[in-house]
Write a structure and sequence with these properties.
By secondary structure, this protein is α/β, with parallel strands linked by helices. Helix content is about 45%, strand content about 15%. It is globular, with a radius of gyration of 21 Å. It binds 1,4-dihydronicotinamide adenine dinucleotide.
Length: about 220
């Protein structure tokens, strides 16, 4: 399959397709039309077709798409047919919550290590993974084919730690620290700020209240 340069907006929508298709597959649905998928996901059928056309259209023939095939193909595009090993740096509330989340494994993300600078946390276990001191991180990354680092530390230390991780050979950083990381080209960073989503929610509450008031 030939893949063009795909916009991040399209890539950003793929996980949602993947989730819906996974549910449909689990419910035993074999085929689905773009119209049905559109009603289910509340996006237009033309948006779905346009998105899928970026990847050759996934061979919609006769009645709709083959759910299992589509699920697998989107999984492949997202790289979920491969295994990724990740470590978490920062074994506080957020780090422990992420480490404790079982479903990452189902998607091929293996929780392999956890690191913290606080001596009181060293040796603590999160889902069978022991927290290790920062001094062990270099050897661990190099010896365990770790490709993703999850940063759940405050912003003060994040830039330094990210630099070290890159020098140890990490390919990608899932960054929860509230700071933009300056990494070399080729290193993938995905910033997650849960509060952005909350602020959007807050905006929408206000906007809805305003609209109701205006229409009274
Ligand atoms: P926490 O205080 O429970 O845990 C932070 C952990 O990081 C501590 O165990 C601490 O010892 C460790 N740490 C601090 N500096 C370090 C360094 N340079 N190297 C190694 N370990 C270090 O805090 P919590 O609640 O787990 O949050 C962690 C960070 O994530 C906070 O800075 C917070 O602002 C941020 N955060 C981000 C969210 C997001 O959506 N992006 C959501 C929640 C928190």
């Amino acid at each position: 399959m030939e893949i063009k340069e795909i916009s991040q907006a399209v890539i950003g929508r793929l996980p949602r397709y993947y989730r819906y298709l996974g549910d449909l597959k689990d419910e035993g649905v074999e085929r689905i039309s773009s119209q049905e998928l559109s009603e289910l996901m509340k996006v237009t059928a033309s948006q779905i077709r346009q998105d899928f056309n970026n990847f050759g259209g996934f061979g919609q023939q006769g009645y709709g798409y083959n759910v299992e095939y589509l699920y697998k193909e989107i999984g492949k595009i997202l790289g979920l047919d491969q295994t990724h090993h990740f470590i978490i740096i920062g074994a506080g509330n957020l780090g422990q919550a992420l480490g404790g989340y079982l479903n990452f494994e189902r998607r091929g993300f293996i929780f392999s290590g956890m690191f913290d600078q606080n001596p009181a946390l060293i040796g603590k276990e999160v889902r069978g993974v022991k927290v290790q001191p920062m001094e062990e991180m270099e050897a661990f990354v190099k010896n365990n084919a770790v490709d993703i680092a999850v940063l759940t530390i405050p912003k003060t230390g994040a830039v330094d730690v990210a630099e070290k991780l890159v020098s140890y050979g990490i390919k990608a950083i899932w960054n929860f620290a509230h700071v933009d990381l300056n990494v070399p080209e080729g290193i993938q960073v995905e910033n997650v700020h849960l509060s952005d989503s909350l602020m959007k929610l807050s905006y929408n509450i206000n906007r809805y209240d305003q609209l109701v008031a205006e229409n009274q």
